Amino acid sequence: MTNLFVLQLLNGVQLGVLLFLIAAGLTLVFGIMDVVNLAHGVLYMVGAYFVATFASLTGSFWWGLLLMLPAAVAVGLILELVVIRRLYTRSHLDQVLATFGLVMIANETVKIVWGVSPLSVPTPEILSGSVPLMGPLQYPVYRIAIIVAGLAVAGALYLVINHTRIGMLLRAGATNRAMVSALGVDIGKLFAIVFTLGAVLACLAGALVAPILSVDTGMGESVLILTFVVVVIGGIGSIKGAFLGALLVAIVDTLGGVFGPILLRSVLDPSAAGQAGRMLAPMLVYILMAAILCAKPAGLFGGRG
Question: What residues contact 220, with CB distance under 8 A and at least 6 apart?
Answer without folding.
Answer: 40, 41, 42, 43, 44, 45, 103, 206
